[in-house]
Amino acid sequence: MQYPAPIAKLINSFTKLPGIGAKTAARLAFYILDMPESDVLEFAQNLINAKRDLTHCSICGNITDQDPCIICSDPGRDKSVILVVEDTRDVMSMERMQEFNGFYHVLGGVLSPMEGTGPDDLNVAPLIKRLADEEVQEVIIATNATSEGEATAVYLSRLIKPSGIKVTRLAHGLSVGSDIEYADEMTLFRAIEGRREI
């Protein structure tokens, strides 16, 4: 069955979102048709506002509605530590934990020669500038445990270490509640490598 053009366009718009296939897109489109018009208009306005009103912090690269962002503006944070992450979602995850009190730096991705992403495509130069200008004593590299994340971590480490700043990497390994017998070799290797005294 061919959908009328307005619903077909709406379905097509939803399929552009990650993880949304044709069936889910159709279900969402028909759900929106059943919503009150005021809710649909509010939803549409929220999409437009998010796109127009958000920008990237000029210091850390995090997404924000003010510049500098609320984290970079916080005088109570530890200026000696910067946690380097791949994207804004990683900042949100760390902040939910409420244990890290330093600053962040968002790379905006990872090195990926296969996808044509090199150092100039990432937010690296502002990080190096921050390290020269600020009283940073440690950089924690928190890229994901993928080949691209590891390559990015090694690249950053080689850039930063000559400045005398301590460079650390998040420990990777077994997650809480997991069984050793089901873990892959790389996870077990990281668990052994990141062990600590108890």
Helix content: 40-55%
Structural class: alpha/beta
Taking the alpha carbons of the first and last residues, their distance comes to: 64 Å
Helix-strand pattern: HHHEEEHEHEHEH
The biggest beta sheet is recorded as: 4 strands, parallel
Oligomerization state of this entry? single chain
Shape: globular
Number of helices: 7
Mean pLDDT: 91
Strand order of the largest sheet: 4-3-5-6
Number of strands: 6
| Unreliable parts | none
Percent strand equals 5-15%
Q: Any idea what the radius of gyration is?
A: 21 Å
Structural summary, described in words:
Helix 4 (88-97) links the parallel strand 3 (81-85) and strand 4. With 198 residues, this protein is an alpha/beta fold. The strands form two sheets. The chain has a four-stranded parallel β-sheet with strand order 4-3-5-6. Helices cover 42% and strands 11% of the residues. The chain has helices spanning 5-15, 22-34, 37-53, 88-97, 125-133, 147-160, 185-193, and strands at residues 55-56, 63-64, 81-85, 103-106, 138-141, 166-169. It starts with a helix and ends in a 5-residue tail after the last helix.
Kindly list the characteristics that best describe this protein:
198 residues, alpha/beta, four-stranded parallel β-sheet, two-stranded antiparallel sheet, globular
What's the structural blueprint in terms of helices and strands?
Layout: H1 5-15, H2 22-34, H3 37-53, E1 55-56, E2 63-64, E3 81-85, H4 88-97, E4 103-106, H5 125-133, E5 138-141, H6 147-160, E6 166-169, H7 185-193
Parallel strand pairs: 3-4, 3-5, 5-6
Antiparallel strand pairs: 1-2
Helix pairs in contact: 1-2
